[in-house]
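Researcher: Re-running this chain for the archive, since the previous output was lost when a drive failed. Same request as before.
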Amino acid sequence: MFVQNLTQVTELFLDGVKITAEGKEWCQALSPLRKLRVLSMSYCNLTGSIDSSISMLVALENIRLNLNNISGLVPESFSDLSNLKVLELRDCRLSGHFPNGIFQIQALNVLDVSNNHDLHGYLPNFLQNLSLHTLKLSNTNFSGQIPTAISNLKHLSTLNLSDCQFNGTFPISMSKLTQIVELDLSFNGFIGPIPSLNISKNLRYFSILHNNLSGSIQSSHFEGLLHLININLGDNSLYGKVPSSLFTLPSLHELTLSSNGFHSPLDEFPNASSSQLHLVDLSHNKLEGHVPLSFFRLKGLRFLQLSENEFNGTIHLVAIHNLPSLHTLGLSNNNLYSTFPIMKYLLLASCKLEEFPSFLRNQSQLHALDLSNNQIHGTIPNWIWRFESLVYLNLSNNFLTSLEGPLENLNSNLYILDLHSNHLHGSVPTFTKYAVHVDYSSNRFSYVPSNMNKHIPFLYFFSLSNNSLQGEIDDLFCNFSSLRLLDLSYNSFSGSIPKCLTRKNSTLRVLNLAKNKLTDHIFAYYVTANELGGRYFDSVTIVNKGSYWNLIKIPSVFTSLDFSSNRLEGPIPEELVNLRALHVLNMSHNAFFGHIPGKIPTGTQMQTFDAYSFEGNDGLCGFPLTKNCGDNNGIQEPMSPSSGRQTSINWSLLSVEC
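Model: Regenerated structure tokens:
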């Protein structure tokens, strides 16, 4: 190393410099620096054990070698560095036994060997007059008990022994750590009562999470700790009554008492509105009685977990309005009756709900309810259809399988009903007499009642796409006097397209019959530009040859024709060239043909479409297909209606998949 000639240097900071040297190499390179007081080489890619030659630097006061792959033992000779004030060997993959003599260096202020899983040792009987104020052994294999002589560390402000193998009871002398600020003893095997720390006036953080502690909490344990911010006593075997004084500590932000055996009612506590608490976790205890209203006066509260207790009585959830920062409220598995505030618009989409919330039954003034994109399984309850004021209901993208009966006397006032992407089966529901927008797509419905138009007469948008419907398309769809969009795609319909769906005076503007088994001759007797005076569909998704176009607030003059993947036959009408608004055309995978064979009609609009719009029709030829039409120079014989089956198609109809 280049530093070996810098014999007069006293402070060496090489943190982050990629030295990549073995232990003996870098240690011996430093040995000539006899005046060195500060050695800081964290995150330097150092490897190999620390060589004992480094102990020759007797002037060393600070050693920081964190985040290296040193491995091996901590040299016993470090105990002879009498001037050592700071020793930091965090995250170094150290192993073996830690030298006890290092703890007794009188000048030592900071000792941090945390996050060395294979490093083991124990705490010694500390000598008097030591200077240690920071001791961090977390996530190591240190074990044993905390010695009574811990009280000799008069300056100790940080003690972190979390994630070790310590056990036994806390010595009474711990209460004499008057300068302690951070005390973390979590994830060990301590037993017995918790220590009293009421004379540790500077204490800010205290955790004994996940031990085997028992006994009760006395109000005197934390009395007078004006600076305490965090108390975590979770996952122990503590019991008895929770002192209300805990909730009134003036600086406390987080209080965790979960997974213990606390019982008895909680008392109301004073001055809740001035409390700093933002997290309270009392879950998994045996607390009983009423939930204190004081909790709902904690204006900064963000997290309140009271689940898995024995609370009873009524909890008025309207009080949540007083907690503007609350994002988590746990009341599960108690004996509570909750009164939820009366809502008009309740939007709970994507909330990971697994069932219909029971409080909804009492929402008599609900206008809109959105439970889409959750994980609700099973049956849609009958009561959900009986809200007189409910006009919007979205239960899409769940795992619903059926509707709870009886359905005969239902009289829903819904305007918009969205049940798409569930597992509903059987007959299509018809009790929403005022509905204008109904989406039953992506279910397993297999039957459409023949008189459905009499039960839902005002439909404007109706999608039955991707169900299990079969047979011929019923004329009933022609009897909806206001219908603008009808999507019957991705079913197993067969036979002819009903003439009434394509007549000139039809109200339809969107018709999707793709991916069925329809067979027909197609002729275009009526062709219009379909300009609807600037009306808009709010949002539809056009699927053209597998490409999804999500269109928001699109003008209804945007025109798409989709009769793909059926068994339609006959020539393509010349009138298509007059559709100036036509943007998407998909007639692929049918049986269209012509006389010579069928040349695709030429015209300004026809030349803009790709070949895939016509592919899969063996009788077609000409641009944009690669198949030529022979030597007729592109002249096609006039087309006339066939003497067989005829269906007139209004080519102004849109085809969108929503």
